[in-house]
Amino acid sequence: MAVDQSLLDEIKGFEGYSAAPAWDYKQSSSGYGTRAQTGDENIPPEQLRAVHEQRLQDEVSKAAAHVDSVNPNLPAGARNALISLTYNAGPGWAQSGLGELVRNGDLPGAQARLLEYNKAGGEVNAGLVARRQKEAAWFGGGMPQTAQPAAAPAPSAPLTLAPQAPPIFSSAPQAAPEPQAAQGGLFAQMPAEQMATAPPIFSPPRKQIDLSKLKAALASGNRGLFFGRG
User: Fold this and answer.
1) Which helix (H) or strand (E) holds 21?
2) Which of 15, 24, 42, 223 could form a disulfide with 32 if both were Cys (CB 3.0 to 4.6 A apart)?
3) Which DSSP letter does residue 182 get?
4) What is the reported pTM?
5) In the chain, how many domains are there?
6) CA distance 166 to 90
7) Between the CA of residue 63 and those of 6, 80, 212, 228, what are the distances in Å?
C-alpha cells in the first residue's frame, strides 16, 4: 500500500531538517533523521536535499512494509501512526506488547500503548510526548491532516451602472414662458396675468421737420434771421 504525501509531510515536521550530520542518541543522522552516510560531504549542497528526500521516502516505505507485515488490515489512521513510530523508533515494537495488540486488532489498547514510546536516552522527552500524542490521535481519524491554505476571497463583481433611458421628445407645442415683470415703474406692480392680456403700447411717429428754408437762408448768407448778431 502506498504512503500518502501528508504522512511524509508530518514526518518531516516531526524530524526537522539538517544538512550536516549530528549524533542522535544511537546514530549519526542528517536530512530528515535518516542515517548519515559516508561521502555525503562530497555531494553538492544543491543536490544534497534531494538525496535526503529520497532517503526519507525509502525509509518510510520500509516502515510501511513492516507495519503491513504485522497486520495488513489496519485502518489508515492506525497504519500511519505505526509507520511514523517505526521510522522514528525502529521496528522493535512489533516484538513487544504493542505488537501483540496490533496483531490482535486491539486498536484501543494499541493506541494507549503507543503513548509509552516517549523516551530518548532512557528519559522522557517532551518532543516525543507531543509526537506520540499526535500519532495516537490518528487512530480514530484516518490520514493526517496537513494545514490547508486559506481560501482566497471571491472576487467582487464589477460595478455596473444601469443604462439611462434616452430623453423623450414630444411633438406637442410647449407653453410659452411666463413674461417677467419689468424692473420698477408701473409694470413692476402689475400682476403677470394682467401683463399677458394688456394691449401693446405704441409711441406716435415723430413729425418730419422741413429744413429747406434754413438751407436757402444759409446759402444766401442771410444768417441774421436765425442767429443773433453779437
Assistant:
1) strand 18-23
2) 15
3) P
4) 0.62
5) 1
6) 82
7) 16, 10, 141, 146
